């Protein structure tokens, strides 16, 4: 079916750009044109948005669906418990899922409640920075929670990024796909979120490469100069945050692709397998990032220890050289009346010459052994 073959082209715009240069993808607040948590509410019938002339409320939208068919897609941003209570009653949402959607800070998961599916996605946004420091914030997380029913789809977003407006517009441009119902929207959101993971993983890889280069780049006299361990540790913390978003989502995507579900269209279900494959690849990358950062951190600490040992060897070497004239001066400073060479004409230059010769011999020996 041509619609299914073009599914990925719909949810992934052809003119994609790097997250580092992308603008307009992330909004920081709910729609300023509305005073409520509802960002958008629309009825879709035969894959097309039903134009009503005036903004629809959730109750009015659901009445249209029950009367004429189709499904309703409601988007909310950080609703309060009171704002979400009416929608929960109207669509018969399970109280446990409603509590999770309002409170946020949930682990990525997939849960079935009676006649609906509750899915939690963590969105990841890469934060641009000129230079990675020990206090740099590399990734910012948000959440998208989805309620999928037979004739409704509800998204609840938390955080200042991860807007779905562009995705909604792209879906509306393909009525044949949107006619598949709420399951097509669920797949589009899953694919959109995982695409974000891929872009962020590429950007984080650049940061890790930069740190790795600095750790192993030659410093003075060709020795590795190392870098600030705080920067490596901060990047490791950000990668851990990334890992918490990616790893728990793999099992839900596998369930959506492998287990038949009456709320998921069979033609759409097979494409969740593609999402799961991409997610597995990102998970492998993130695990690799974590292991690589562990190795970089250990190498940096080892280099710091080696540098300290080098400094101690140099200090010890110079102390050994200085000890020779100190000892000689100490001997001839004892003020005994009868001492060899004390009243000899050439005693003073002889002692100085012997002292310098011994110091030069020690210096040459230590330098030959790599201590200086």
Helix content: 40-55%
Structural class estimated from helices and strands: alpha+beta
Low-confidence stretches: 1-5, 13-34
Can you list the strand order of the major beta sheet? 2-1-3-7-6-5-4
Instruction: Measure the end-to-end span.
Output: 75 Å
Q: What is the gyration radius calculated from CA atoms?
A: 34 Å
Beta strands, count: 7
What proportion strand? 5-15%
- The best one-word shape is rod-shaped
H and E string: HHEEHEHHEEEEHHHHHHH
Q: Which whole number gives the mean pLDDT?
A: 81
Largest sheet report: 7 strands, mixed
Specify the number of helices.
12
Q: What would you note in describing this structure?
A:
Helix 8 runs antiparallel to helix 9, helix 10 (250-258) runs antiparallel to helix 11 and helix 11 (266-331) runs antiparallel to helix 12 (347-368). The chain is rod-shaped. The N and C termini lie far apart (75 Å). It is an alpha+beta fold and 372 residues long. The chain is built from twelve helices and seven strands. The longest helix has 66 residues, at 266-331. Strands 2-1-3-7-6-5-4 form a seven-stranded mixed beta sheet, sandwiched between helices. The chain has helices at 2-5, 7-11, 58-68, 81-91, 95-103, 165-172, 175-178, 182-216, 229-246, 250-258, 266-331, 347-368, and strands at residues 38-45, 48-49, 71-77, 109-113, 116-126, 139-148, 152-158.
């Amino acid at each position: 079916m041509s619609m299914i073959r073009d599914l990925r082209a719909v949810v992934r715009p052809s003119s994609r750009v790097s997250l580092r240069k992308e603008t307009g993808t992330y909004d920081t607040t709910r729609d300023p044109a509305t005073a409520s948590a509802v960002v958008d509410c629309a009825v879709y019938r035969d894959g097309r948005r039903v134009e009503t002339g005036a903004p629809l409320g959730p109750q009015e939208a659901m009445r249209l669906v029950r009367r004429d068919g189709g499904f309703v897609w409601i988007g909310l941003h950080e609703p309060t418990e009171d704002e979400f209570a009416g929608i929960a009653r109207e669509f018969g949402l399970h109280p446990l899922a409603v509590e999770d959607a309002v409170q946020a800070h949930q682990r990525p998961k997939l849960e079935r409640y009676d006649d609906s599916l509750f899915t939690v996605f963590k969105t990841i946004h890469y934060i641009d920075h000129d230079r990675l420091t020990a206090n740099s914030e590399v990734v910012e997380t948000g959440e998208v929670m989805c309620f999928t029913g037979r004739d409704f789809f509800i998204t609840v977003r938390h955080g200042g990024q991860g807007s779905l407006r562009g995705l909604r517009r792209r879906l509306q441009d393909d009525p044949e796909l949107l006619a598949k119902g709420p399951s097509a929207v669920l797949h589009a959101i899953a694919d959109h979120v995982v695409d974000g993971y891929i872009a962020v993983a590429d950007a984080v890889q650049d940061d890790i490469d930069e740190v790795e280069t600095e750790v192993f780049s030659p410093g003075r006299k060709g020795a590795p100069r190392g870098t600030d361990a705080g920067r490596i540790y901060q990047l490791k913390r950000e990668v851990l945050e990334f890992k918490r978003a990616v790893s728990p989502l793999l099992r839900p995507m596998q369930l959506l692709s492998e287990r038949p579900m009456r709320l998921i269209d069979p033609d759409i279900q097979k494409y969740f397998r593609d999402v799961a494959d991409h997610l597995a690849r990102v998970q492998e990358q993130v695990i690799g990032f974590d292991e690589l950062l562990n190795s970089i951190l250990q190498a940096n600490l080892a280099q710091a220890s080696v540098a300290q040992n080098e400094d101690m060897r140099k200090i010890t070497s110079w102390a050994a050289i200085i000890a020779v004239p100190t000892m000689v001066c100490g001997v001839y400073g004892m003020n005994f009346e009868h001492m060899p060479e004390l009243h000899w004409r050439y005693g003073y230059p002889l002692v100085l010459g012997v002292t310098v010769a011994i110091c030069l011999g020690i210096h040459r020996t230590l330098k030959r052994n790599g201590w200086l």
